[in-house]
Every structure is written in structure tokens, then in C-alpha cells.
Amino acid sequence: MRIDVLTLFPEMFAPMEHSIMKQAQEEGVLSFETHNFRRNPVNKHGHVDDYPYGGGAGMLLRVEPIVDTLEELEMTEKSRVILMDPAGKPFSQDLAQEWSQEEHLVFICGHYEGFDHRIRDYITDEVSIGDYVLTNGELPTMVMIDSTVRLIPEVVGNAHSIVEESHQRNLLEHPQYTRPREFRGKSVPDVLFSGHHSNIELWQHKEAIRRTFNNRPDLLEKAELTDKEREWVKEFESE
């Protein structure tokens, strides 16, 4: 996979040089590069923003520097050009899974009050990280890239662990424990020491439903529950 990021602050992407992202690049699974679109300013002063027509607070990013930088990239018909925008559709695990199958992703990071609307003629996706406002588009871009790249089959060693993670089925992951067996009066559930794998899997399955019911009931509305899972939900409702 190739990922290009258009940004005014390439130095903010230092975390991409560590951990799983670094490993993916070293193994040749991922090519990652940032592009400062300030190198294509609209005047000799290096400006890439301007006041909005019709008035309004703040400054808007002009369309020319961004499009000029996009046109310098090796793009294909399959390239996905993703604009960070709080008005975009919410980022999700399903979208990360979809992107992980792509050959080329381009992320455009915003600043100030947003973009000249005409930039939308050059993008394929408008995406938001959530219903809140940040000072920049670099942070949500890094979150989305991390979430996407780790789903590439060659990146994370244990594919089974990815399938069972939170949000893969619109369910949260079951509670997990490690040593010590008891800590300040709180013990690890006995079933996890039983050695009975089917009982352990049943407990994990049920506790995943319980955790989703308690913490994110909205996810249950999207999940395709089995008859047994619906029985558990009714049980939790009566508790």
C-alpha cells in the first residue's frame, strides 16, 4: 500500500516512524510520505490561505496549493483521496477495513476554518473522526492511518486477534486478564483457569455481549445478533 499525506506540518507525523507503522515500512508492505503543500504557495510570502468571500470568521485554505500538490503525485483511477472534515461521514472499523484493501490512499489535512469548497471536486471521500472539532487534520489522519494499516494482512502477525477485536462485529471485545490471579480482592474469573476451551469461549462470547450492552448499547442496534445473543441481552435487561 502507498499512503501520501498533504499537510502543512509534516513534522507532526513523527509517530509514523515507530512501532507497527515503522515495521510495515521496513518490510515493504507500506510506502508512506508526507507532502507540505506550502511549497506551492499562492504568492511570494508563502500564503496558502485567504479570507472567505461573503465574510466570516477565520481563514480558509485556498484550493490551488492543494490541487497543485495533488497533481505532483503519481495518481491512478484507483487512488482514494480523503479529505479530513468534521462535516464528513464518521470514520469506522468498516471503513478502515475497506481502505486496507486499497493500493493508494491520499489524505488531505486541514487547518484554520476549513477548505475552499472547490477542493471537493478532487476528492473521493470526506471523513470525520467524530462529532467534535480539532485544531488540525493531522491527528485524525494519524488515527485513521494506524487503524487502516494494521488491518493489512501482512502487518499484524495474529490475524485471529484482529477478527476478535472490538468493533469487528459491532461488538466490544470481552474482558481480558493477566497475572496476578487476585489483586486487592478482585479475582480473575475461574472459568479462565478451567482448561475447558468451549466453556471459555462461551464465557468470552457472553461477556462481549454484556460489555457492549453496558458500554455501547448503540452498537447492538447495528449488530446482527444470533438467537442466543438476543437471549443474553434480555437477561442483561432484567438484571
UniProtKB/TrEMBL annotation:
Pfam families: tRNA_m1G_MT. One of its GO terms (biological process) is methylation. CDD domains: TrmD-like. It catalyses: guanosine(37) in tRNA + S-adenosyl-L-methionine = N(1)-methylguanosine(37) in tRNA + S-adenosyl-L-homocysteine + H(+). It comes from the Bacteria. Its EC number is 2.1.1.228. Keywords: Cytoplasm, Methyltransferase, S-adenosyl-L-methionine, Transferase, tRNA processing. GO terms for molecular function: tRNA (guanine(37)-N1)-methyltransferase activity. It is an enzyme of class 2 (transferase). Residues 1-222 form the tRNA methyltransferase TRMD/TRM10-type domain. It is found in: Cytoplasm. S-adenosyl-L-methionine binds at G110, I129, G130, D131, Y132, V133, L134. Homodimer. Specifically methylates guanosine-37 in various tRNAs. Belongs to the RNA methyltransferase TrmD family. PANTHER family: TRNA (GUANINE-N(1)-)-METHYLTRANSFERASE (PTHR46417). HAMAP family: TrmD. This is tRNA (guanine-N(1)-)-methyltransferase. It comes from Ruoffia tabacinasalis. The gene is trmD.
